[in-house]
Design goal:
The structure is a single chain. The protein has 386 residues and is α/β, with parallel strands linked by helices. It has 2 domains: 109 residues, Rieske [2Fe-2S] iron-sulphur domain (Rieske Iron-sulfur Protein); 224 residues, Rossmann fold (3-Layer(aba) Sandwich), CATH 3.40.50. The protein is built from 11 helices and 15 strands. Strands 12-11-13-14-15 form a 5-stranded parallel β-sheet, with helices on both faces. Helix 2 packs across helix 10. It starts with 7 loop residues before the first strand and ends in a 16-residue tail after the last helix.
Length: 386
Amino acid sequence: MSQELPEWVDVGAASDLATRPLQQVLLGGRVRIALSCVDGVFSAISGVCNHVGGPLGEGRLEGEYVVCPWHYWKFHRTTGSGEPGYETDCVPAHEVKVLDDRVLVASKPRSARHKGKHAPHPLAREVVRTEGPVRVLGISTTAMTEGNPRYSTSDDLLDAALAGAHDLGCDTQLIRMRDLSFRACEGYYSKSARACTWPCSITQMDPQDQMDRVYEAVVHWADVIIVSTPIRWGNASSLYYKMVERMNCIQNQETIADRHLMKHKVAGFIITGGQDNIQAVAGQMMGFFGEIGCQFPQFPYIAHSRGWSAEDMENNQRFVQRSEVLHDGARSLVARCIEMSKLMLGGQITSVPPSRGGRKAHDIGMTAAVKEPPGDPRTVRIHEGP
């Protein structure tokens, strides 16, 4: 049973604490406080953000507001109220006094926490498949100059796959990543696993970011996902990696919330290029899409490359354009994916809840190995406070 805190808690020497405009301190080693100092005057508010619990004391000051380092929510450093327009979103504020160069913070807040009502993002709704034919999504990750289209071997074969799916009675949709304006991943996961949210933090904060179209299609619409990429220096395209880095928020729901967003999804891949390394490219793509929950048919990718020595790209393009074998291969790939999807949607392949053991971020007792010395605030199990 935890010991009750005294009325006033000594958090350190004023001369030391005044050297930083904002910092996190702990009351009794348990309660996080964001302590600020402006012109020698100290203020204290709860160190726990109303949004998803970000550490306010590790943020920054912007005028009179403490800015959360995770998603940039703002709270007045003295009153704890939200920024203009969000004043009802309050975190608790604490009295502060200085005696004999010691900063004392009241253990009990003078105001209460209040979380304003925020409508959930449309993508946050429950994932429910509506009735209808198998839905096939094609995603092109080929970049090219806007307004000056060119022939793309991977796009050509993706078009053939989607045409084949249409002929089999499926609904189809094509997303060309080059047509979307979306920001690169900004590393919220690097701040904390809990800072990487679903939907993506960028999507929630930036209504102009068009990655929401990919999330809607991949999570809520598609049964089959066919991703095409060119080979760039032995890897998938930079546009592919920009996309999948933003999809870490899907996988992270497994890690932090044990929430399985990708149910009954089948993935297949089309890989083409003037250079080689097809198997490594396919391995990365299968590794990523497998980890977010996709299944694969037999022979889950088709590919074409003329190898390291062939720099005559115009001949490579003509070969793919004229190759009935490759176009048949694309149609066969999507047909295999559709048949796998029908088995899954029909219940012939049962879902077994995955054990955490051996999967990403499973607990292997690493805490003890990396634990800082006792009393270090970085390792204390924090009480979230009032």
